[in-house]
């Protein structure tokens, strides 16, 4: 186990989540993401005439994160009925962050940012400056009269970050640790990368650093909050760079 040696498991061991269960859970998410990006967003845009990125916020919130959060809640409810869930905070690795957790989270965010930036720069050089974001995230640079998009993004941002970390790290990773021990972060990271399979391959390459480093930090520190810090910092930087035309 790669957990912080100062932390011990509180309460009963969660049920195991092996390779088949992991593939089913993350695969269902990947299918929902495919439906959102390839069917729902174009349909919503065609029907409403609204900006593509706003319809992404709406469709992903309803079709992707809604079902994922419901599934996670049902899994936790089943654990409680089986007597495996005593403390929700301990089960989800949501204890208060200490100094070590903050150091790992900030260091992880810095490493992810540097590695992602390097991969992105190399890809842009190889592709003559071609943009590296999905088509549904394409929108005109924000300016007077368009800052309202930030208001539409903020609730989606919270749902995206907290929702994914709750499902993939809080619920799934501790169960994967029962099955895979100290290598659970790697299984979690590979599955999380494949969850984004609907994205262009160039985007998938830029996601490799965060999809591997974030689960490692979370398992190493047994802190889902650390994952939220890394994911939120990375996601916010990415969106704001696009929004203000910084890349």
From TrEMBL:
InterPro entries (alphabetical): Rce1/LyrA-like_dom
Domain of life (superkingdom): Bacteria
Species classification: Bacteria, Pseudomonadati, Pseudomonadota, Alphaproteobacteria, Hyphomicrobiales
Keyword annotations: Membrane, Transmembrane, Transmembrane helix
One Gene Ontology term of the molecular function aspect: endopeptidase activity
Protein name per the record: CAAX prenyl protease 2/Lysostaphin resistance protein A-like domain-containing protein
Domain CAAX prenyl protease 2/Lysostaphin resistance protein A-like: 148-235
GO biological process, one term: CAAX-box protein maturation
Transmembrane segments: 21-41, 53-76, 102-126, 146-166, 178-195, 201-218, 225-246
Source organism of this protein record: Mesorhizobium delmotii
């Amino acid at each position: 186990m790669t957990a912080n040696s100062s932390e011990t498991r509180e309460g009963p061991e969660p049920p195991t989540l092996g390779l088949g269960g992991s593939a089913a859970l993350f695969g269902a998410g990947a299918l929902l993401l495919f439906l959102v990006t390839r069917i729902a967003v174009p349909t919503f845009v065609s029907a409403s005439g609204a900006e593509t990125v706003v319809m992404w916020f709406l469709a992903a919130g309803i079709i992707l994160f809604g079902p994922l959060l419901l599934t996670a809640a049902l899994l936790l409810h089943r654990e409680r009925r089986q007597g495996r869930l005593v403390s929700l905070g301990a089960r989800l690795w949501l204890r208060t962050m200490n100094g070590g957790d903050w150091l790992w989270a900030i260091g992880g965010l810095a490493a992810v940012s540097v590695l992602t930036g390097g991969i992105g720069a190399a890809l842009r050089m190889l592709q003559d400056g071609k943009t590296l974001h999905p088509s549904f995230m394409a929108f005109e640079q924000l300016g007077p009269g368009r800052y309202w998009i930030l208001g539409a993004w903020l609730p989606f941002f919270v749902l995206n970050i907290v929702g994914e970390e709750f499902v993939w790290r809080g619920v799934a990773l501790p169960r994967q640790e029962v099955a895979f021990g100290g290598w659970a972060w790697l299984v979690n990271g590979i599955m999380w990368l494949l969850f984004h399979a609907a994205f262009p391959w160039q985007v998938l390459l830029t996601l490799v650093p965060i999809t591997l480093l974030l689960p490692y930090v979370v398992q190493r520190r047994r802190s889902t909050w650390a994952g939220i810090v890394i994911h939120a910092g990375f996601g916010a930087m990415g969106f704001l760079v696009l929004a203000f035309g910084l890349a």
